[in-house]
Task: inverse folding
């Protein structure tokens, strides 16, 4: 990140360096399902000095932050104390995005962020990622959904069997070409294996 090598960095070090992650499996790895909406929103902020009064966690400040995140990220019909597992998939994804983007990281890595969501939730998630991108955050979107890739991305890099098979400005990309490159059509497997 920047000029900092992160290959051997711990998760905490990567977070501190400005990496946020939106995992593909939102319920199993994206949230702590047994905890509340508030607790899940605070998972990245509990170490922040602004969230403390000396050595004591500032619950009043946390409540203010959580209320603002619920409003700003349009997490609908929830109470902060509600278990996050009781939310819809779209609301769970908004909790994750609120937690990860609100820290103002340098890079947001989002893996299939709209998989399994209804049309309305999909548009909401895409809009949040586009807003983050437009505010200067680098968004690395990993997806097989061509519509999603074209809606969010400025540039596309296609991989097949772990190798880059093409790169395009999103405006110049053709769906047929992308699909063929993703499926390895017309690519010499010997080249890829080397």
Result:
């Amino acid at each position: 990140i920047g000029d900092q090598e992160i290959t051997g960095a711990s998760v905490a070090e990567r977070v501190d360096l400005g990496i946020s992650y939106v995992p593909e499996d939102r319920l199993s790895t994206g949230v702590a399902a047994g905890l509340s909406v508030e607790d899940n929103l605070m998972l990245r902020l509990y170490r922040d000095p602004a969230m403390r009064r000396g050595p004591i966690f500032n619950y009043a400040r946390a409540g203010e932050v959580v209320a603002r995140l619920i409003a700003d990220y349009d997490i609908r019909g929830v109470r902060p104390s509600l278990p996050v597992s009781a939310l819809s998939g779209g609301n769970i994804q908004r909790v994750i995005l609120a937690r990860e983007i609100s820290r103002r990281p340098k890079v947001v890595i989002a893996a299939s962020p709209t998989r399994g969501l209804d049309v309305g939730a999909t548009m909401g998630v895409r809009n949040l990622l586009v807003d983050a991108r437009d505010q200067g955050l680098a968004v690395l979107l990993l997806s097989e959904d061509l519509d999603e890739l074209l809606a969010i991305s400025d540039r596309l890099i296609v991989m097949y069997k772990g190798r880059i098979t093409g790169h395009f400005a999103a405006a110049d990309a053709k769906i047929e070409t992308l699909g063929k490159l993703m499926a390895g059509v017309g690519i010499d497997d010997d080249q890829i294996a080397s």
Remarks:
- The two ends are 28 Å apart (CA to CA).
- The first strand starts at residue 19 and ends at 22.
